[in-house]
Amino acid sequence: MPLGRLFGRKASGERIGVRVGNDTLTLCRYHAGAPSTISAERLSLSAEQDFDAALHSSAEALPANASDCQITLGPKHYHIVQVDRPRVDESELAQALSWAIKDLVPIPPDQMALDYFELPVQPAGADKINVVCADTSVLKPMVDVLHSAKLPLSNVCVDELNLPKLFPVIDEAQLLVIQQENEELLLVIVKQGMLYFSRRVRGYDLLATMTPEELRTGVVDNLSLEAQRSLDYFESQLRQPPVKQILVSLPGAHSELIIELLSANFFIPVSSFEPEAAVSANLDSSGLLGLAGIIASEGAS
């Protein structure tokens, strides 16, 4: 059963985004108006402070009048698996997918909350489907906490599907390099407001704590190679025109230096990711990941 349909219900109005990262809960608040207001708060998640305790440790009381809430799962809490499309009717697809991925994810089939999506283009001859899978035994306690707090949950989603909603709908493709501290890097290519490509890159969890010297002596060059591989796949395998811009949103004090070093390795512009929806809020990468969930939910309502 899809993640959102399993736990959510539709709503509209003031919105709350809760992104559950590896060791951080980001609580993002969006109040529509003229002008709209956006805020984001990072709360610690640990063995000593679980989801419930983290949510209620907010410096600002949880809103009593929020009309919508979205959970965004960080990479620790879900899996994305690409498989061949099962040859079954659409009504039987979800069940067929749970069996198709049962040996690829460490979740028993009867505990899978899953959804699936297709990309706008695929390599020649491919007929793949992307399956998003989470464990209901992990999700349900989070959902119960939100319901107890009277926060009306409308959807459960993931970064890869939320982030494109922060992009303008234009024909030029853009590559985003984004990360929440202590998590894998996420590379996404967005075109016409749609996700065309996504990839998690391991080995950069501590990027935010690296010194300028470390960044200059190989780290950013290696990151450039990872980005270039994604650009090459987009052009050669997906047969798309070249990406026109690289956007960056990274934690830590040296993000401007990383942008400068990346710029030296590419012939296309490299700049900070500042989506229009958040231009007045000065959000860091964790705040943007939380806001993306709200904007995505708003578009789906």
Trace the largest sheet across and list its strands.
Answer: 3-2-1-4-8
- Overall shape: it is globular
* Secondary structure tally: strands: 13
Continuous helix count? 8
| Percent helix | 25-40%
Reading the helices and strands in chain order gives: HEEEHEEHEEHEHEEEHEHEH
Report the mean per-residue pLDDT as an integer: 90
Give the uncertain stretches in residue-range form. 5-12
Task: Write a brief caption for the model.
InterPro entries: ATPase_NBD. This protein has eight helices and 13 strands.
What's the structural blueprint in terms of helices and strands?
Blueprint: H1 3-7, E1 15-20, E2 24-31, E3 37-44, H2 51-55, E4 68-73, E5 79-84, H3 93-100, E6 112-117, E7 128-135, H4 136-148, E8 153-158, H5 159-162, E9 174-178, E10 185-191, E11 194-201, H6 212-236, E12 245-249, H7 255-263, E13 270-272, H8 285-300
Parallel strand pairs: 1-4, 4-8, 9-12, 12-13
Antiparallel strand pairs: 1-2, 2-3, 5-7, 6-7, 9-10, 10-11
Organism: Corallincola platygyrae
Protein name: Type IV pilus biogenesis protein PilM
